[in-house]
């Protein structure tokens, strides 16, 4: 079941370095929110705080609240492993387990949860691969290594692996940056399908991609080198790209930035 994310006054640190300053935004359920902005502005850092991946870095910490349907995922009683099951993530480069079979790649998370029933795992595998628009291409090679697939297929395999555990939210950190245009289009089409069931947040350097796939867009920026990144504005994607409120957003989108 897709859930709503609320980020409230979030500050992010790496040791003493203040990386991101005072971010507040809402991600509605069953929608796509795109994070855009120049390199180093904190958009991927913010994304990683949404499923507590940020805290695996020594010295990293988060102040503020990240609420999933009103529950603070950083509360002391919350298990970060459970957060990462509920809020799945797809990374910049496809990262299947290369020697593991296609089937075992998809159901790896379910096996970690203790599911051993072969019929159930087979059903989860097929359902997830169909949801990732990959079933037809790989149904005859489920026993072959996942590393033998093309780059675009590997990324869809990683998406199938992420959704096999039935998360509420799906985070994507530049999921198409290592892919060719045809594979990129396949992933963008897939995002459009997945938002019927999931809340999706995507980081992208490709503004055309943000305009194509997202319902709302958040623009992040730096005031100056060494300063923390900040959220400049967030609004419906159509408005951000046609009539942004902030001059900095307009300059970035029109190519006048920097």
Please tell me about this protein's structure.
By secondary structure, the protein is an alpha/beta fold. Helices cover about 35% and strands about 25% of the residues. The strands form two sheets. It has a six-stranded mixed beta sheet with strand order 6-7-8-3-9-10, with helices on both faces. The protein has a four-stranded antiparallel beta sheet with strand order 2-1-4-5, covered by helices on one side. Strand 1 (about 5-15) and strand 2 (about 15-25) form a beta hairpin. The longest helix is centred in the middle third of the chain and has 14 residues, at about 120-130. The termini are far apart.
Task: Give a topology summary.
Elements: E1 5-14, E2 17-27, E3 32-36, H1 43-49, E4 60-68, E5 71-72, H2 80-86, E6 87-90, H3 102-112, H4 118-131, H5 135-138, H6 151-164, E7 169-173, H7 181-194, E8 199-203, H8 207-213, E9 216-222, E10 229-236, H9 237-242, H10 247-253
Parallel strand pairs: 3-8, 3-9, 6-7, 7-8
Antiparallel strand pairs: 1-2, 1-4, 4-5, 9-10
Helix pairs in contact: 3-4, 3-6, 4-6, 6-7
Strand order of the largest sheet: 6-7-8-3-9-10
Count every beta strand, where a strand is a DSSP E run of 2 or more residues.
10
Q: How big is the Rg? A: 18 Å
Please give the count of helices: 10
How can the largest sheet be summarized? 6 strands, mixed
